[in-house]
Write a structure and sequence with these properties.
Length: 566
């Protein structure tokens, strides 16, 4: 151990990373331990860098404890797939793995990838190595490294879709950890690690102080909420080409109740770079966060806090110093919306693309609604792609007119043809929360659909059922469903109780503001009812709900995360 490091000063995770021998930890031993379904405590941190979280089924925790059994341990596996684009064969592989080793569902996440839940320790290695047969991996899907890179999702909405997916992939690969631990542990590949010490030229032995997130958008679409990313790139299109990208830094949403020094923050645009500068800009920003991020207090370790400590100007100067040149002045851009636009659209490639609403991102068969089966059958019959959006939805992309008919027929046959849903539901996101998330204070994915039905009754009374309003719910303030950017945000405080936030805008550039604290369902409805009525009556033409509540002083606009209150 390096004696110059004062470990007492640093967070526990720093030491674990340092001692992990480039993310090996004691994972091999933990996996082989037959006594428990768990892995060692230290390994629960290291496994995250391999896309794996240990969890328990919180629905069963009490009963298991009562029976003096260890908790029902299982694992969440998260994939890395920049831009969220999967082949039908990869979809089929994930579908099969979810049946064979997981809880029979596929979870489409808010960062355009898959999660499997409920994988047992003994099946972890099999799941990961079988995934690898279809060139799927889980490297750096979690942990203190750059995570899955998001990008604009819909090929029908922009002829530059392929270009930004390619960019997201190159950023992801450029910022991938270089350790061979993953291949050794999960794929039994004895690469260089036996003969040569691993190196992490970019990250160093302690990796980043905290997670790091990147997203790329093409205006007017803000489908991956670029202002919530540690680092965002906004494509600037001129004369039918992407000429470069505005650079946004310091977005991040997680915060903790009662800790005012933690807050959600929207990113700051610091300049513009050309397409061939993007990788080095990303790399230099990561380096500055690596060297300046807080390694003592994980609650202050995200780059948003680093930037607020340094000041935006100094941060930008540091970036430019490392780059050896100045970023150009940011170029004008206009973002119009942050969710997904549904239905079939024909792209400039003459192919058809269906954006399909997946409630809570959960793909499963439920009664007569056989979504999982339908998508399996579709994957067997089309040659296009399956693109996951940053809003937990799915695009069946790049199909011919004949295949389009087949897709429609299969969705209908399995009881899941797209139906008219309210503008509110279309724009809803709920994080996983209970029963798998250990940090959840309240339900989200299992509850939001019912709450929306109740709000829909109010909307119907005011002829607003088609009105697009962004509503997002999470089971805690960590922000996994990006609730702080919603027009109506609900964050779980305790079972059945939520904070209600209003005033985010429809294009995802403004934080919302606390409106009511710790209220149950009947109060949520009671609070929303008169505001919705007022909105129906007094809105300006085309005014969105979030803008209306600010203009009418229901809440005050928040200009910087530091003003945010829980
Ligand atoms: Fe998240 C932790 C689920 C997107 C902020 N998140 C977790 C964990 C792993 C809980 C844990 O630490 O044990 C959750 C697992 C629940 C489960 O059972 O699946 C979890 N996060 C998710 C997903 C699956 C939510 C979903 O329903 O889609 C999303 C997976 C994305 C992915 O594919 O990588 C997910 N998480 C996000 C986002 C949104 C985004 O990235 O666009 C955020 C807010 C943006 C940000 O990072 O600032 C987010 N997750 C967090 C945080 C708070 C971080 C912070 O800065 O304070 C935590 C807790 C932590 O890191 O300590 C967290
Ligand atoms: Fe869990 Fe909280 Fe994230 Fe929801 S927001 S998945 S409850 S950590």
């Amino acid at each position: 151990m390096n004696e110059t490091i004062d470990w007492k000063e640093l967070s526990e995770v720093e030491k674990l990373k340092y001692e992990s021998n480039f993310l090996r930890g004691t994972l091999v031993e933990s996996l082989a331990d037959p006594i428990t379904g768990a892995i060692s405590e230290g390994d629960t941190q290291i496994s995250k860098f391999h896309g794996i979280y240990q969890q328990t089924d919180r629905d069963l925790d009490k009963e298991r404890k009562h029976q003096k059994l260890e908790p029902a341990y299982s694992f969440l596996i998260r994939l890395r797939m920049p831009g969220g684009k999967f082949t039908p064969a990869q979809w089929l592989k994930m579908d099969a793995l979810s049946e064979k080793y997981a809880n029979h569902t596929l979870k489409l996440t808010t960062r355009q990838t898959f999660q499997l839940h409920g994988v047992l320790k003994n099946d972890l290695k099999k799941t990961i190595s079988e995934m690898n047969e279809e060139l799927l991996d889980t490297i750096a899907a979690c942990g203190d490294v750059n995570r899955n890179v998001m990008s604009h999702a819909n090929p029908a909405e922009s002829p530059f879709h392929a270009q930004v997916i390619d960019l997201a992939t190159r950023i992801s690969e450029h910022l991938m950890p270089r350790t061979t631990a993953y291949h050794e542990i999960w794929l039994d590949k004895k690469l260089i690690a036996n003969s040569k010490q691993d190196e992490e030229p970019l990250y160093g032995v302690r990796y980043l102080p905290r997670k790091f997130k990147i997203g790329v958008v093409i205006p007017p679409h803000n489908d991956c909420d670029v202002f919530s990313q540690d680092l965002g790139f906004i494509a600037i299109v001129e004369k039918d080409a992407i000429i470069g990208y505005n650079v946004v830094v310091g977005g991040g949403l997680g915060s903790t109740f009662g800790m005012t020094e933690t807050y959600p923050r929207t990113g700051t645009v610091i300049g513009y770079c050309t397409p061939d500068q993007v990788l080095e800009v990303a790399e230099k920003v990561v380096l500055i966060q690596r060297d300046n991020g807080d390694r003592k207090n994980r609650k202050q370790a995200r780059m948003k806090y680093t930037i607020d400590r340094m000041g935006v100007d100094e941060f930008k100067e540091e970036v430019e110093k490392l780059l050896g040149y100045k970023l150009e002045k940011e170029k004008p851009f206009k973002l119009e919306r942050n969710g997904d636009d549904y239905g079939w659209k024909k792209g400039t490639d003459n192919k058809w693309h269906l954006t399909y609403f997946v409630e809570g991102g959960r793909v499963l068969d439920k009664g007569k609604q056989q979504l999982k089966t339908a998508l399996r059958e579709i994957a067997k019959q089309i040659k296009g792609d399956f693109i996951l959006t940053g809003n937990q939805n799915l695009i069946v992309a790049g199909v011919t007119a004949t295949e389009k008919k087949k897709v429609d027929a299969l969705l209908k046959k399995h009881g899941v043809a797209p139906t008219e849903i309210s503008g509110l539901r279309q724009n809803s996101i709920a994080c996983v929360a209970l029963p798998t998330c250990p940090l959840a204070f309240a339900e989200a994915e299992r509850y939001l659909p019912d709450l929306i039905s109740k709000i829909e009754t109010i909307l119907e009374e005011h002829d607003l059922i088609k009105e697009e309003i962004v509503i997002r719910m999470t089971g805690c303030p960590n922000g996994c469903g990006r609730p702080y950017l919603a027009e109506i945000g609900l964050i779980g405080k305790s079972p059945g109780y939520y904070n209600l936030y209003l005033g985010g805008n429809f294009n995802g550039t403004r934080l919302n503001t606390l409106f009511k604290e710790t209220i149950p369902e009947d109060e949520i409805l009671k609070e929303l009812r008169p505001i919705i009525a007022d909105f129906a009556k007094n809105r300006k033409a085309k005014e969105h709900f979030g803008d209306f509540v600010i203009r009418n002083n229901y809440v005050k606009e928040i200009l910087h995360g530091k003003e945010f209150n829980h």
